[in-house]
Amino acid sequence: MSDTGAAIKAAKEVQADTLAPEHYRLANEYWFKAKNEYRFKNFKEARDYAQKARKAAEQAEFDAIRAGANRSDISETPPPPPPQPTPYDYPAPTGTPFEAAEKKNSPPPPAQEPAPAPAPSVP
Length: 123
Known about the structure:
The chain is mainly alpha-helical. The chain contains 5 helices and no strands.
């Protein structure tokens, strides 16, 4: 099955879908039938259809090359690189777990009394 997939891909690379459409269409039909039979666990039929699809794809590739297709004419741009993740600044821990436990268990600091208000001035 993987050989068939590679043969169909190779035929597509030389534009067999436009230069040899009959064989290319036939290869895709057989390939579809092979995958369908494989899903239904009909392995013998899947193998037979896959072999027919591979032969049709190879014939389509040959016809396309004979019609003037060339692999070097194919300019396939490489996929763009994946986006780089932005760095995340993790907060730096301060102190130790022991110090955090001491803070948690220590009594709260004494409350400060507010300063007395200044006396009003009399004229």
